[in-house]
Fold these 3 entries.
Entry 1:
Amino acid sequence: MTRPLQRNLRRPAAGPAAAAPALALQLRMEADAIARADPVPAVMQLLTDTAIGGHHRSDVFAILRELVTNAIDHGLLGLDSSLKATQDGFMEYYRLRDARLRSLCNGHLTVRITRERAPEPGGDALRIAVTDSGPGFDHAGELVRTAGPNRVTQRGRGRGIAMLRALCEELTYTGTGNTAEVLYRLTPPAA
């Protein structure tokens, strides 16, 4: 039996230690659900309601969108970003994406988000991990290729990694590269 959506939410007991809600969220989507629904808006609404201030919303949305899109496009659908190097290629990329998404019948995606409490004020962080059931990629090589001043390769690859590095304190890949995990610091807004 396929379960298209699984969500777990835990909140701490009320009291002084619960000033900022702790959060542990896990969402798993099977292929049929991935083909029909975008998980990012629902997850963002939950995060906005329980774990992040409005001033973090756009950054967290960009991070989550990048991680989920990469997992689907590259991990599950096997699309190559180099297609987007030309205008015709860009259109072809999205034509292929739509066709492959409609025919997706195997695979899954898991999004795990935890709010990590820090003892110092404003030091809390979101740890976001996205895992897909795809074959992975040469994550060590890609991290080397996208490091330094030329973070985006000539074929347009690496834009997402550069963005994640700019917004997040940590970016790691594990497994065969099919799990991407970031740590985003929830610093208070400037006064």
Entry 2:
Amino acid sequence: MRTLAAMKLEHRRVNKMTLKTEPKILRRSLATIIDYGLYLIFFSWLVMTYGRPNDEGGYTLSNDPKGWWIFIVWIIYFPIIESISGQTLGKLLLGLRVVTKNGNPISFVQAFKRHLVDMIDFFFFGIVAIITIKNTPDHQRVGDLWAKTIVIGGDSVICTNCKESLTLTPTEIMSKEFVCPLCRTTVKM
């Protein structure tokens, strides 16, 4: 059993470090596929349910107020939910979260900016996003660069005391502090 003096000494042993993000291209891609897959299901349902057949064999929602639901659901699912929780369903399932560059929750404007340029990032099967993620220091895509955000989750850090390599959850990263399970040092980021 540890003494009170040992616990106080341990509590004072706090190290400062910065987080180095990782690309996470596969997990980010899968999260995007999940999110836009869900959005596509809604879009298809709306057009097929309320659209009118057109000459090309598809459906059209021209001059129909129900067409606004496509934009409304996009705003709710992407910018609003992401600004409230830092995650869409895809990111939640894959252990990812969007934060500001200093680790704080993002605002609605930042979430809106991130997703406003999704089509640029997704151009030619996501090659623009892959290139920018691989070639920016914080592994940001175009939307992240404009919004000044980063994607975290499963990032590795090395304990400054025992040099153990640790993988942090988004919650640990957001709290900006964790206790190394090996040496029990409190590490602040």
Entry 3:
Amino acid sequence: MICPKCGMNIALETDTCPNCGMTLERQTPPEPQSQTPVTDNMQAHVHTNTGGFCPNCGAPHAPDAIQCLNCGIPLGSGYVPVNPNQVPQPPRQRSRLIAAFLALFFGAFGLENFYLGDSTLGVLQILVTLVTCGFGGTIWGFVDAIKLLTYKKNADAYGIPLKDFDF
């Protein structure tokens, strides 16, 4: 079992923590319920038994729990947030105007593709630029800029819609 005050591993037979002296109450884990659904921006982790207490907040949990019901962190991942109120953020929405600017002025280097998260296409664009002495990559950049400005390219490499012009 883990001491909820100091986090030290303690033998199950002990009634007090040898490190901080806290009196421990024997708690039986709650009956297993249907597993708490994991949100889209969290990954499910295989639970490694930590003695039935959350490493972040010390709350007891079922042996097969994958997420703490008290603070919400995934169990067994080794992840303890710096701020207990920290929530994983979804990826940022990219700007169509910045991508078009990068394609127009730096298209030979594939910067618009790197900005939009498609590094494979960016590297391919650099290779085309090198093989064609700059001509192929520059044309590719102009074509990408036109696609972006005429709404023919509407999402980044992750499928997130591009943010429209906000003048």
